[in-house]
């Protein structure tokens, strides 16, 4: 039922529209899209403010000779890289973190680059226009605590730099710097809050969606299990009960033959409840063909195996429906060993005898084993797909399991079917 539940869960996630932006994690659909929207908004906003700052920087005379061009290259080069990364959707976090660090370093070097210049209270330097871009970049690059710290740090450093250039006076410079710093803090706080709100809402939506899909999967899984139980109950009531009644009322060889056929049909249908497999034809085959079919079936399960064969030479005398039932039962035993014992020590041996014609198949593993009597009645992997399937063609099956491993033995002899 675990595999069925996972299949239903995958189907439920498949109902949600998928794009190349959301395939990284089915549980982060909204958060991924919000992150992309934030990156695009930051990219266009940085482009607008960056152009304003760049045009102002082209005619700037605040820096000393030898400082102007390196500062332009460092700041606007990293800013251009961040804008491109945001718009393209690749490496935005790294590029934004790089710009934030480069801007802070250039801001710290600004007093040296403009040494000797007298700051104007009415004219802000071009580097001022990028203060909030630097704080905005942290929304992409850093976790929330560092975003808050950076949003406060950048305006404060700018204020200290501006005041230090004027010798921490006169009074009108203090007023102008205080207004600039307060404006930067308020705008930075608003931008930081918007990013936090959008991400929180996206996370809540994703959590709710994941819970809804999980609830759908649980309901669908329960519904599938209930339908399976109803189908098995109907089968037991109709087919098996009818076969038992026919057997009890059989008074002639013809009626007994009919009752046997009805019992076989009921057992076959029970065995095929979990797999759409018919009885197959009665075209005769031999033990070697059965061994080949088991090896192919194991390969389809993703496990390559070479069956140990001890087969006496004899003509093809095993009915096709018998061979098919044995192959399907052996395949189920192999699947159980792969799933529950991780294919530990998994081997398959086949013995074919000529007089009377018969075949014996042993599927062994060295896993932890299980208690056969404790297997739930509604688990058809053993009772239906192995025991009932072999019994339907007149064969016998025996399962021995313990701490040293599990052995499933399937046998059929001519004349017993």
Biggest β-sheet description: 5 strands, mixed
Residue fraction in strands:
5-15%
Q: Structural class of the secondary structure composition? A: alpha+beta
**Helicity level:** 55-70%
Task: Tell me the radius of gyration.
Answer: 38 Å
Characterise this structure.
This protein is α+β, with helices and mostly antiparallel strands and 417 residues long. It has 2 domains: 2-212, no CATH class; 274-413, Heat Shock Protein 90 (2-Layer Sandwich). Helices cover 64% and strands 9% of the residues. It has a 5-stranded mixed sheet with strand order 1-2-3-5-4, with helices on one face. Helix 1 (2-14) crosses helix 7 and helix 4 runs antiparallel to helix 5. The protein is rod-shaped. The two termini are 33 Å apart. The model is unreliable at 16-27 (pLDDT under 50).
What characteristics describe this protein?
alpha+beta, 417 residues, 5 strands, single chain, 5-stranded mixed beta sheet, 9% strand, rod-shaped, Heat Shock Protein 90
Short description:
This protein is α+β, with helices and mostly antiparallel strands.
Protein topology:
Elements: H1 2-14, H2 29-58, H3 68-88, H4 92-113, H5 131-141, H6 144-165, H7 171-249, H8 253-271, H9 287-300, E1 308-311, H10 320-341, E2 347-354, E3 357-365, H11 380-392, E4 396-402, E5 405-413
Parallel strand pairs: 1-2
Antiparallel strand pairs: 2-3, 3-5, 4-5
Helix pairs in contact: 1-7, 2-3, 2-5, 2-7, 3-4, 4-5, 4-6, 5-6, 5-7, 6-7, 7-8, 8-11, 9-10, 10-11
